[in-house]
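A quick aside before the break. I want you to see a complete sequence-to-structure record at least once, exactly as it would be stored in a machine-readable document. Don't worry about memorizing anything.
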Amino acid sequence: MSEKVEKTSTILVSDIVKTVFSFLIVAFFVIIMSLITVKELKGFSYGKVNTINISDTKEEVEKTLGKPTNVDGDYYEYYSRSYRDVVNGVKKIFGDSYTDDMQLSDVKNLLDESSENYKQQIDSLKTLKYDYICIKFDRREQVEWLVLDKEISLIEEPDKEIYWQNLFTDVIKPDESIDLIYQISYKDGSLYKFVIEKNFTPESKKFETDFILNKIFLPKTFQGVDYWGKEFSKSIKLTISED
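That is the input. The structure line, written in tokens, reads:
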């Protein structure tokens, strides 16, 4: 009898341990997913913004991102939900000194290095960040360029380190005149997509033939200054194809 009771007790304890362990695992993933969801709600997804293409219409943009926060002529502007948190945070830090007619860019003017609260204000401001999207439309009301600016700081200069850059397409026809679309991705999750050269027509005299690969290439160096004033440069071999 005692052996049966002991065996039953062991089974019950084992079942309880398994149940508690399973519950903890589920709870852990729920917490992780909640944190990811909260961050996603407050910021913009690189992957989602990157689905917008040059020459997309306003309707196509709004289908992806919704209505813009602000429309300024040919520009659509989107501010992440964390933008409101930033504004409220600034009001909390500076009180009545920050008035409704002021811009967030005016915050630096409110800082006083001689103030005893200066360091505390700086530390608080460093925690306030938001995302921003700007889309420029051309005369046809199609996307001309777009920018995703991640985690904008009110007091820190943007550190836009390039992670990846390339042409949107590097295969062109020998007699084709096209707009070359360039894309730059940054380590902080920012994005800059634009037309780097309009009506580009390849010059046949500059073609190079790779007899091993049996392909024709056109070497070309692309360089310029990005949205944040950072210089970029990359040499790319365009593939010339009749297909």
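Two observations worth writing down. Residues 24-41 have pLDDT under 50 and may be disordered. The helical segments are 2-42, 46-49, 58-65, 82-94, 107-110, 118-126. We'll return to this after the break.
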